[in-house]
Amino acid sequence: MEDFEAFIRQVQERLSAGQREYGDVSFSRDPADLLNEIQEELMDICGWGYILHSRLARVQRALDTLRKEQKNEE
After folding, report:
1. Strands (E), 27-66
2. Cβ–Cβ contacts within 10 Å for residue 64, how many?
3. 20: part of which helix (H) or strand (E)?
4. What pLDDT is attached to residue 24?
5. In this structure, what DSSP letter does residue 23 have?
6. Which residues of the chain fall below pLDDT 70?
7. What is the pLDDT of residue 11?
8. 23: alpha, beta or left, given left = phi > 0 and alpha = psi -120 to 50?
9. What are phi and psi of 24, to 5 degrees?
10. With DSSP H G I counted as helix, E B as strand and the rest as coil, what are the percentages for the chain, rounded to 5?
């Protein structure tokens, strides 16, 4: 639950930052606009996930190469 509590704090901080920057106008925005915002954010998340996936795949390939080299040295 410690991680969940930290997550809730982060969400609260983001909401507070949004309120400072935009006021409370988000609560009166057209729901279709909010849906569009969410869809755009999800596309960003997918993009960042792909970037992380690609970087981790490079790390995995490097580790596989090191393991092969170590086996060949034995």
Report:
1. none
2. 10
3. helix 2-22
4. 86
5. T
6. none
7. 97
8. left
9. -100, 20
10. 90, 0, 10
The Cα–Cα gap between 26 and 33 comes to 10
Both tokens of 39, joined, read: 């869809």
User: How many other C-beta atoms lie within 10 A of the C-beta of residue 39?
Assistant: 10
Residue with token string 């006021």 = 23
Instruction: Tell me the three state secondary structure of residue 10.
Output: helix
26, 18 contact by CB (below 8 A): yes
In whole angstroms, what separates CA 54 from the centre of its chain?
14
The owner of tokens 């869809």 is 39
List Cα–Cα distances, 74 to 35, 67, 68, in angstroms: 58, 11, 10
Please tell me the pTM assigned to this model.
Answer: 0.68
In angstroms, rounded to a whole number, what is the distance separating the alpha carbons of residues 38 and 8?
19
